[in-house]
Amino acid sequence: MNALVRAVEAVLFAAAEPMTVEAIRRHVGGEASAAEVRDALDTLAEHHAERGFQLARRGDRWLFQTAPDLAHLLRRQRDEPRRLTRAATETLAIIAYHEPVTRAEVEAIRGVALSRGTLDVLMEAGWVRPGRRREVPGRPLTYVTTPDFLASFGLESLRDLPGLADLRAAGLLDPVDLGAERMEMRAEAPTDEDG
């Protein structure tokens, strides 16, 4: 199996969604022509024809899928991914970055009350579990992340969580003053009526 065929196989194996020939070509470096990528796809389709998973074409997109004659084996075990609400995502991040943390501390950081269902969803997902009780009046329960949380997000330890600079560099955070500055610029921008 040549290097291009292996690269195409790796890209398709890791893809979350079916990919076009052009998208595959870009991922493998763009030096291969579309015809060469199609030849690699044909080679892979032939190679995987009798295996437990096959290369399939859906319109102009390609993907690996379970062999049709074995699909029945996976139907009962297939879990549907569950989307987290914004509140659950924020709560999970607070717990991960500040653990062990109490419900009151999560609410103080978020600035809003935490609904009971939010923590339940995170515990059902296996990402959060109750920790020890704090040795303070009322003895509030703390919450911590689990090994499943680390595995689900590909982390070896909580030290591998991205820092503030990493999140900002990835474009996931805007400085508060930059956001306020943008809002002011929009408010001052002339409209068609000012004209």
Folded structure, characterized:
The chain has 195 residues and is an alpha+beta fold. It is built from 9 helices and 6 strands, in the order H-E-H-H-E-E-H-E-H-H-E-E-H-H-H. The protein has 2 domains: 3-68, Winged helix-like DNA-binding domain superfamily/Winged helix DNA-binding domain (Arc Repressor Mutant, subunit A, Orthogonal Bundle); 86-169, Arc Repressor Mutant, subunit A (Orthogonal Bundle). The chain has helices at 3-14, 21-27, 34-47, 86-98, 103-110, 116-124, 147-152, 164-169, 176-188, and strands spanning 19-20, 53-58, 61-66, 101-102, 128-133, 141-145. Strands 1-3-2 form a 3-stranded antiparallel beta sheet. Strands 4-6-5 form a 3-stranded antiparallel beta sheet. A hairpin with a 7-residue loop joins strand 5 and strand 6. The chain is elongated and about 70 Å long. 11% of the residues are buried. The model has no long low-confidence stretch (mean pLDDT 81). It holds the Pfam family SMC_ScpB. One of its GO terms (biological process) is cell division. This is Condensin subunit ScpB. It comes from Sphingomonas carotinifaciens.
Question: What would a concise description of this structure say?
Answer:
Helices cover 45% and strands 14% of the residues. With 195 residues, the protein is of the alpha+beta class.
Structure characteristics:
195 residues, alpha+beta, 2 domains, WH-like_DNA-bd_sf, 3-stranded antiparallel sheet, 6 strands, Arc Repressor Mutant, subunit A, 9 helices, cell cycle, single chain, cell division, ScpB_csome_segregation
